[in-house]
Each structure stands twice: as C-alpha cells, then as structure tokens.
C-alpha cells in the first residue's frame, strides 16, 4: 500500500526526498483553511511548519489522517485535542534547532558586547566613529541563564569557553546536576542581581510573562545587557525601553517580540537594541534536521511504529482505556495543582497508588501523565507521555512509584508528594465513578475538591476573622466564591482553607490576603 503525504509548508528537500522513497508526496503550500479542508481527505499524513493552521475543521475533514507532523519545536498551530479525539498521532521535532538557537544567542551576545550592527550601519553611512562604539569584553563577566534546558546548557557551555562565569535559574534542575556542568544554580532574584548579561531560555507561561519588568530591572546591575531568543512576552518591552532610556540597561538583543512583526514595539527604534526577525531556527542545518526528523517519524507511524517526539498519542491499549482513563485525567489535574503549590527547585516526586488504584493495569502510564501535568507547563522542552520520565531524569529529579493496599478510607487513592530544596507538599485524589473524581487531601488536610477551575488555597492559624477578611478582599475585586472548605487537625492550630472561585484572582488581591494576620501561605491555582 502506498501512502499519500501532504506537505503544506516549505520543507527542506532532504525531508521530502525521504518521504518520496516511502510514498506519494504532494507539496502544496499557502493553502487557506477552506482549500486544505477540500483536499485533506485524500491524505494519510500532513506535514507543516508554522504557516499552516491545522484546525479542528481540517482534522475532521481528514478522514484518512493518521499522522500530523510539525517540522519544528512547537505545535501551537495544531489542534492536538481534536487530533487526539480522532486518534491521529501528532509529533514535532524539538531538538533539530537546538544548535541554531544556541549559536544565534551567542551571535547576539557578542554583537551586543561590541556594538557590531550599530558600527556596521555607521560605517556604511560613511562615518568613522571608533570612540562611539566602545565595547566590553565578555571574559570574566557573569552570564545569567534563565532556563537551563537544552539550549540554555549549550549557551553556558560556549560562554564558559570564553571564560565567563555562568549562573542559572531553573526550578527543575538540581544544584548537583548543574554542578557537573560547571554552572551554579541560584534563585531568580539572585540571578537578576548578579548577572552582567542575562539570556532567556524559558517558555512563555503565566509565571514567565513579563518576568523581566520595571521592578526586576531595577534590581539588576547598572549596565546590564539582556538577550531574548526564546519567546516574546517574557521581557516587558516598555519596561526595557524605559530601562535603556534611563541608562540602567546598557543594551538588549531581541529575536522575539510580544507581537510579531513588532511594528508598534517601543524598542524598535532604539539604537542600543539589536533586533532580528525571529531567526533563532533559521539555519540551513536546522531546517534540514527538523525536516528529516519529522519525515522519519511520519514513515514510522504510517508503518505501524511510533513517533519519537509524539505529543499526544495515547499509550493505553484500547481494552484498558475505560478503566485507566478516569485515573489518568485526575492524575494530570493533581500534578498540575501540585506544581502550582510548591516553591523552590524540584528534587523528588513520590507517587503512591493505594487500594484499587494499586491494581490498575497501567500505573506506568498514569505516572507519565502526572509528570506531564507537573513539568509540561513550566519547561521549554516539550513533555509528553513518551519522554516524561526521561525529562525528569535528565533534570536530576528523583522519581519513585509505590503501591499499597491502604487507601485511607477510600476504595482507591493516588497520592503525589513533591519535595523541593525549600519545602514538601502533597496532593491525594480518588475516583468513585468514571465521571466522579475528587482531590481528597492537600498537605495532609482532608478536602473534597472538584479538580477544575480556579482555587485559592491557604494555610492559616485557626482563629476567628481570618477567612472572613480573605472573603472580603475577594468580594472587593469582584471575585465570586463558589465554594469553601476548611480542614484542620486541632482547633486553634494550623488549618487549610480551599476557596473555589469563578475567575482568576488579581495579584494585588493575593498580596493583600497574604498580609492578613494569621495567614501563613496563600496560593492561587488553575486546574
């Protein structure tokens, strides 16, 4: 049987040639959604880059589709949920552009240190202003690497070759793991204070959006230099412009922007800002690598095998799905909640399956689901059901999985305990019916929480007035409380409060609640 493959974005010829040896390949770029819907029904696989939007409508029209491949790291332009519902494997090629992004970062750093683009422009205008473009040496400077995944590590390796001192922040890399690479792990606020040059290599999530802002820039060294070749939005561009205008920031190099193309960005016209149009992965080698990777994965899946970088493929045999999936859905929610409750660098995760959960046919899959729920939201490297355990191990996170007959009064129970360098936290959940799963314990306090929506969770002294003051603050900012639970061990000692709310809580309100006398800790989470 000859399979048909549609390539709807430009793909390196090396990848096309591999596919042509396997089946019929049509390269048809620039299709609108309507045009893609009209033709996709004839194809077994679809390969894209970032230009094609693979919507639910396209996926539903792909009656024969078995594989959708993205020649690159992200899958933002693919409706993976719709593909999963249809049983279509979605895979990407996250490692193919690692060196391209690394080398672009190094080029930006060197250009920033020696004012190379500005000096080039000046000389081409017929000027000879050597003193205007006085640079700095990177030797013996402190490089702060924010995000220590594959690209962050490669950048640090090259910076060390130039005798820079490297410090890094990553909540999911242990100090011991970093030490083997000659890098010191530090808290983010310390990185901001100590670094001469800061380079960003994190994903854009709620916690990292505008993490470099007016307040954090104020804590940095005078003359700091900032580089972002990761994701637009991590640096507040207006705050950066203000920092350059005041002289606090000596310069910046940006490959990514909050809006692309960045026509209205306040940094575009600034002489001290070097800008490139999202070129991090734009090398011949990177495009060749991702094309070959996604082509080989396509062939493997169509031949009945697996994709190396699958992002959605279910790992449960069909006959086990009805039993395992309710537990897996709960487990991912529990992992997502737990990662939002902890602080510090994650060191270990312990998962305990109790009662009937201990006899499930596929606890390994559930463990991977938990790891995905915990790691995927905060790591730049994609985490999926295939690589979850490898990603944890690579970052030095210890993982243990145990089973027990004890379920603490429930028929079944899954418990997750996460330890960081600063604290330990736990979450337990139970499934009483396929459509009825609950989080039944947080930190050892009994709860009865439906794992969905927004919650505010506090530890506080069990005394009158604490809960009322918190509720008053939420009411003042128009956050409606849908439900409230309080757990305690003894009257007058520490208690746990769980508020289910209808919307996100403004950061200012959370800070105000934190200052209430008797509040020990307060967290807002979305699950």
Question: What is the helix tally?
Answer: 17
Going across the major beta sheet, what is the strand order?
A: 8-7-6-9-10-11-12
| Strand element count | 22
Sheet having the most strands: 7 strands, parallel
Helix content: 25-40%
User: What's the quaternary structure here?
Assistant: single chain
Principal-axis shape: globular
- Radius of gyration, taken over Cα atoms and rounded to an integer in Å: 25 Å
Overview of this structure, please?
It contains 17 helices and 22 strands. With 527 residues, it is an alpha/beta fold. Strands 8-7-6-9-10-11-12 form a 7-stranded parallel beta sheet, sandwiched between helices. The longest helix has 21 residues, at 321-341. The mean pLDDT is 91.
């Amino acid at each position: 049987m000859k399979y048909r493959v549609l390539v709807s974005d430009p793909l390196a010829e090396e990848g096309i040639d591999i596919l042509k040896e396997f089946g019929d390949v049509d390269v048809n770029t620039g299709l609108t959604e309507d045009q893609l819907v009209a033709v996709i029904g004839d194809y077994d696989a679809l390969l894209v880059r970032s230009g094609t939007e693979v919507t639910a409508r396209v996926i539903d029209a792909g009656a024969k589709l078995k594989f959708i491949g993205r020649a690159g790291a992200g899958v933002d332009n693919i409706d993976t949920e719709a593909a999963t519902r249809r049983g279509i494997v979605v895979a990407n090629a996250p490692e193919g552009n690692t060196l391209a992004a690394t080398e672009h970062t190094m080029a930006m750093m060197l250009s920033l240190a020696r004012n190379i683009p500005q000096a080039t422009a000046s000389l081409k205008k017929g000027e000879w202003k050597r003193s205007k473009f006085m640079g700095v040496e990177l030797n013996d400077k402190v490089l702060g690497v924010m995000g220590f995944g594959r690209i962050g590590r490669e950048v640090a390796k090259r910076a060390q070759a130039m005798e820079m001192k490297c410090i890094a922040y990553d909540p999911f890399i242990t100090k011991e793991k970093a030490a083997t690479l000659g890098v010191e792990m530090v808290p983010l606020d310390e990185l901001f204070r100590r670094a001469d040059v800061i380079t960003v290599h994190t994903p854009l999530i709620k916690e990292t959006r505008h993490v470099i802002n007016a307040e954090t820039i104020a804590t940095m060294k005078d003359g700091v230099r900032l580089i972002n070749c990761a994701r637009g939005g991590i640096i507040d561009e207006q705050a950066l412009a203000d920092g350059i205008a005041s002289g606090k920031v000596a310069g910046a190099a940006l490959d990514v922007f909050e809006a692309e193309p960045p026509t209205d960005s306040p940094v575009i016209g600034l002489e001290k800002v070097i800008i490139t149009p999202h070129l991090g992965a734009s090398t011949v080698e990177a495009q060749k690598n991702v094309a070959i990777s996604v082509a080989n994965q396509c062939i493997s899946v169509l031949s009945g095998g697996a994709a190396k970088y699958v992002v959605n493929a279910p790992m449960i045999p069909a006959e086990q799905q009805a039993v395992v999936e309710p537990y897996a859905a709960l487990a991912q929610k529990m992992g997502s909640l737990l990662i939002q409750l902890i602080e510090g660098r994650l060191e270990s995760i312990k998962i305990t399956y109790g009662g009937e959960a201990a006899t499930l046919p596929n606890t390994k899959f559930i463990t991977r689901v938990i790891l995905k729920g915990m790691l995927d939201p905060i790591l730049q490297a994609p985490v999926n059901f295939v690589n979850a355990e490898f990603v944890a191990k690579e970052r030095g996170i210890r993982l243990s999985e145990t089973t027990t007959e004890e379920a603490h009064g429930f028929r079944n129970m899954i418990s997750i305990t996460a330890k960081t360098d600063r604290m330990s936290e736990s979450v337990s959940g139970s499934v009483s019916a396929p459509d009825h799963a609950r989080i039944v314990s947080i930190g050892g306090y009994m709860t009865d929480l439906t794992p969905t929506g927004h919650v505010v969770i506090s530890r506080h002294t069990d005394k009158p007035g604490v809960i009322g003051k918190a509720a008053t603050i939420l009411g003042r900012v128009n956050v409606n409380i849908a439900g409230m639970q309080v757990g305690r061990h003894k009257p007058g000692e520490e208690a746990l409060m769980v508020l289910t709310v209808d919307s996100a809580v403004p950061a200012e309100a959370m800070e105000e609640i934190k200052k209430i006398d008797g509040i020990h800790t307060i967290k807002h989470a979305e699950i």
